[in-house]
């Protein structure tokens, strides 16, 4: 058994060295029939070399038809988005794919720019499909996940010139009402790409929940996917069995949260015919096990939460991400040699209950409870209250003082 673990660790280490960190995202689309209120969810767990992220509000202008909010890099290049939702209720995420046909003669890695333009111009899945058709070559090799305010929900396996739609409302595509994507495209080269172990973890977690009759919420996704330390091959779950992390340490090996994780978001859409401004993007900035979810809405306009917004014109970072980065430094404290690949898991969870995940859990629970109580009135009236939302942001504790 020890030899098997060693070999798996070695293989995983070599694979992670070869696979760009930006190609390690995990995602899912969850149909409204699996949620308590009938509203769909779109989840992206983002891995990237740009570890410091924030949320930006982009207002309408001559190039932006629909205002939107988006997760961006703190050192943001203008015109890029990595997940977001607009005022029409159109939301988009992506996961890089590594098994589709590449076009090396074209400019690559344009996913962020494509998503920015889609948020700025699209209202429906049909709009997005027209957008894909009219903007070739796209310069991408990716899986786009999209939901809209008309009940549309689909993945688009996309390269520079072609795309294949996987409709989540089609029972032959998503028989259980959800679909997970990592870093391969099912219609691409067989056994190509990556993220198969993370795919198994995520799919097994969703499947178990659905088949047991459990419902799926943004909070459940963060706690059970974004902070999931189980490994389907090794048969371990560090959060359930602390002894599986000897001396409080483990290897950063194919877990969903990894040293390259910069943020995780669950976009809660609306029902068909409902006010699209009721859409919510719950976002965890930083390494999710040591950070707290914040609800953001296009309806807030320029009054986005200060904790997720840039600190100043000269400082593009935000308070929540900065706090998480400081905690993350204690989770990945070894800087030399192969040390960065080791996780000091005792800083995340421990028997004394003093790990960051354990201390921040009640903080996040209070955020969800306060927002759910306030937003219940908005869903009942069919309209968000921007003034009440701004006041709520000012009253909530997002755990910035947890060191």
Features:
single chain, 403 residues, alpha+beta, Penicillin V Acylase, Chain A, six-stranded antiparallel beta sheet, 17 strands, disordered N terminus
Description:
This protein is an alpha+beta fold. The protein has one domain (2-395): Penicillin V Acylase, Chain A (4-Layer Sandwich). 28% of the residues lie in helices and 20% in strands. It contains eight helices and 17 strands. It has helices at residues 2-18, 111-121, 125-134, 196-211, 218-226, 319-331, 356-381, 386-395, and strands at 26-30, 41-47, 53-58, 68-73, 83-86, 91-96, 142-147, 153-158, 163-167, 178-181, 230-231, 236-237, 250-251, 261-268, 280-285, 293-296, 342-343. The strands form four sheets. It has a seven-stranded antiparallel sheet, covered by helices on one side. The longest helix has 26 residues, at 356-381. 49% of the residues are buried.
Topology:
Blueprint: H1 2-18, E1 26-30, E2 41-47, E3 53-58, E4 68-73, E5 83-86, E6 91-96, H2 111-121, H3 125-134, E7 142-147, E8 153-158, E9 163-167, E10 178-181, H4 196-211, H5 218-226, E11 230-231, E12 236-237, E13 250-251, E14 261-268, E15 280-285, E16 293-296, H6 319-331, E17 342-343, H7 356-381, H8 386-395
């Amino acid at each position: 058994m020890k030899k098997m673990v060693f070999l798996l660790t070695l293989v995983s280490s070599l694979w992670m060295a070869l696979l760009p960190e930006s190609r390690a995202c995990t995602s899912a689309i969850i149909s409204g029939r699996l949620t308590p209120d009938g509203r769909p969810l779109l989840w992206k767990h983002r891995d990237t070399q740009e570890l410091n992220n924030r949320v930006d509000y982009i207002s309408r202008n001559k190039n932006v038809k629909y205002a939107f909010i988006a997760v961006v890099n703190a050192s943001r290049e203008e015109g890029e988005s990595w997940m977001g939702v607009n005022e029409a209720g159109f939301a988009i995420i992506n996961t890089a794919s590594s098994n589709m046909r590449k076009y090396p003669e074209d400019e690559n890695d344009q996913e962020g720019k494509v998503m920015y333009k889609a948020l700025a111009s699209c209202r429906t899945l049909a709009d997005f499909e027209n957008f894909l058709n009219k903007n070739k070559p796209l310069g991408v090799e990716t899986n786009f996940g999209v939901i809209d305010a008309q009940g549309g929900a689909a993945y688009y396996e996309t390269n520079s010139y072609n795309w294949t739609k996987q409709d989540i409302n089609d029972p032959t595509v998503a028989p259980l009402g959800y679909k997970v994507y990592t870093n391969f495209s099912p219609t691409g080269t067989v056994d190509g790409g990556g993220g198969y172990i993370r795919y198994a973890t995520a799919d097994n977690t969703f499947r178990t929940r659905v088949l047991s009759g459990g419902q799926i919420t943004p909070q459940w996704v963060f706690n059970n996917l974004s902070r999931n330390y189980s490994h389907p091959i090794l048969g371990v779950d560090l959060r359930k069995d602390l002894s599986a992390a000897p001396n409080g340490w483990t290897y950063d090996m194919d877990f969903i949260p990894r040293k390259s994780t910069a943020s995780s978001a669950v976009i809660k859409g609306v029902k068909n015919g409902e006010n699209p401004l009721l859409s919510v993007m719950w976002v965890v900035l930083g390494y999710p096990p040591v950070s707290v979810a914040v609800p953001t809405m296009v309806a807030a306009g320029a009054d986005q939460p200060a904790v997720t917004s840039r600190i100043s014109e000269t400082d593009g970072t935000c308070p929540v991400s900065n706090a998480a980065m400081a905690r993350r430094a204690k989770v990945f404290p070894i800087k030399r040699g192969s040390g960065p690949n080791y996780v000091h898991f005792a800083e995340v969870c421990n028997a004394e209950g003093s790990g960051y995940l354990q201390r921040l859990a009640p903080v996040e629970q209070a955020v969800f409870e306060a927002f759910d109580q306030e937003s219940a009135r908005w869903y009942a009236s069919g309209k968000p209250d921007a003034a009440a939302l701004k006041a709520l942001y000012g009253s909530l504790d997002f755990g910035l003082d947890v060191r």
